[in-house]
Design goal:
Radius of gyration of chain A: 26 Å
Strand order of the largest sheet of chain A: 2-1-3-4-5-11
Largest sheet of chain A: 6 strands, parallel
Number of domains of chain A: 3
CATH topology of the largest domain in chain A: Rossmann fold
Helix content of chain A: 40-55%
Structural class of chain A: alpha/beta
Oligomer: homodimer
Number of strands of chain A: 12
CATH class of the largest domain in chain A: Alpha Beta
């Protein structure tokens, strides 16, 4: 690829002159400018953004660590983050942690060594200290990492409340909740808190079963249901699942053992991502996360930190959720 | 972030000595090595990979341009590309072209300015000259760009043949094919060629309708069907769709107008991505693209070019497809 030296040589000027033309700095005669510009065009010269990044100590690159791109929620989230970042002239390095702590740690190290301007953390398999030591602008999705690291979340508590109240309104009185993993203090666990509190307030019998980390396949969910939930299905009349793929698997499982949804069993999911929107049979009753708004908020919050410095807790953002009534309740 | 100068200062040595320790070059006494290493640890020093990239003229960054990450095929493909690249110590810059030629062109320019080592092109909205002028290692997915640019493709012709023969074997004799866009000479068009030739060989009445660019939503496909296909549905008994999301929409549309699948109308799709694998009602009959193998081949072919130079045409890869028999035939 042509270098700035090649341009200078062809135009018959110094490298400093080429640099001045590119940056519109200092006095340059119109003939010289024309010569330099036509040399740049002839050589198809592209300014070296890596050299610029080194010089200005700003790479305009953002790292995003997610559990897995092939999960429809994260694919869609990533797509919105990329579109927002690109509109602000930032590029994205994408990392799949696959829910492995070691991979997540290595990605953080790699991103620091590559001098990204900041990191969007959507994977959370490490203890909080690991994130506090990163020493770069960070924004977190759905987890509180520290008072100096802003987070973006959907309104998980309201989501859990909407789902549970909806099941109760539809006449359920023996409820089950399949949560996400409860070990890390994820904000998604507020869905479970809301479920329990809403059941208690309404004097409804309830149970919570801790789900595994986001499963992306039908088969893994099916196995989990067989091992942990199958025996309980006939004893409950409403189930709130903390994600749509699980809710869909549960619907198919109930159907396979002759339990009618929604007549005998009502099911509410969570997410309303591209899979759910595409699915017609059944149309799931679910809680809609505003995925586009979450992606935009993650990107804009991080870019704001990069360009204007770290804020205090005031910059957390909680985005509203919505009940989508489908055919499973 | 700590610099190499800070490390040298704390360890009481010169920058050259720190650099020697890091690169294991020249003689370093064991006490000096220990001092430098403990200074690096104390300051949490991370070597600057951007400086290294500039020096070595290799960034270990690959650019990937895809139409849209939120489409399940590309999300899954991207996930496999990232996993392979990461295992070889390469990072990915991801770009959503959204099928817009101007965006695609800007991304190519941006990737060159950021000195990526090479580009994986999965979006094809430009004329071929635009790719030939890139002057970087490129590998293309499903499109022949030039004899010096390798491509990776699934065996589209065999896929089209398998789908069409399957419909004929199941007793269909009035066939319809919904292709992708035929304007660019994409390898996916070999599916349509195979459809036509197989119909002709078997003396089967057929028609091809040109579909629009990969639609990712049910609603857009539904509108397309209403406008372009609805009138023909009762006149055919088998339809080969060039993607699964379209096939699923068509199945739902046929159901809504009282046409029974597979009794009155048989449908075959193409892709077998995460959406199709998840979908239980119906299980689609489709042609399986080996998405993991395609992702691995794209990444390994590009890395091979980056590290060992450009090859001739011999390095194209065509990967085998497979008929998955579901409930729609």
């Amino acid at each position: 690829m042509a270098s700035i030296k090649d341009v200078a040589k062809l135009a018959g000027v110094s490298v400093t002159t080429v640099s001045r033309v590119m940056n519109n700095r200092g006095y340059i005669g119109s003939k010289t400018r024309k010569n330099v510009e036509s040399a740049m065009k002839e050589l198809d010269y592209q300014p070296n953004q890596i050299a610029r990044a080194l010089l200005k100590n700003q790479s305009h690159v953002i790292g995003v660590i997610i559990p897995n791109l092939s999960h429809p929620f994260f694919a869609e989230l990533m797509s919105w983050i990329e579109q927002y970042a690109s509109s602000q002239n930032y590029k994205l390095l994408v990392c799949n942690s696959l829910h492995e702590a070691e991979k997540e740690l290595n990605y953080i190290k790699m991103l620091r060594q590559n001098r990204v301007d900041g990191i969007i953390m959507c994977s959370h398999t490490l203890e909080i200290e690991a994130y506090q030591n990163v020493n770069l602008p960070i924004v977190s999705f759905d987890r509180v990492l520290s008072s100096s690291i802003p987070y973006i979340a959907n309104d998980n508590y309201t989501g859990g409340e909407l789902a549970t109240n909806h099941l109760i309104d539809q006449g359920c009185n023996k409820l089950l909740h399949i949560s996400g993993p409860l070990h890390y203090d994820l904000l998604a666990n507020r869905r479970s808190d809301a479920f329990q509190i809403t059941c208690m307030k309404n004097n409804i019998a309830y149970e919570t079963i801790e789900g595994a980390h986001v499963k992306a396949t039908f088969e893994e969910n099916w196995d989990f249901i067989q091992q942990n939930i199958a025996d309980k299905l006939s004893q409950v009349d409403g189930i709130f699942c903390s994600n749509d793929i699980f809710a869909y698997t549960l619907y198919e499982y109930a159907k396979s053992v002759g339990i009618k949804v929604p007549e005998q069993l009502k099911i509410v999911g969570y997410d309303y991502h591209s899979f759910t929107r595409m699915l017609q049979t059944p149309k799931l009753t679910t809680i809609k996360q505003p995925i586009k708004e979450i992606g935009n908020a993650l990107a804009s919050s991080l870019i704001d930190q990069i360009e204007n410095g770290v804020h205090d807790n005031g910059s957390n953002t909680i985005l509203a959720v919505e009940l989508i009534k489908g055919e499973t309740t």
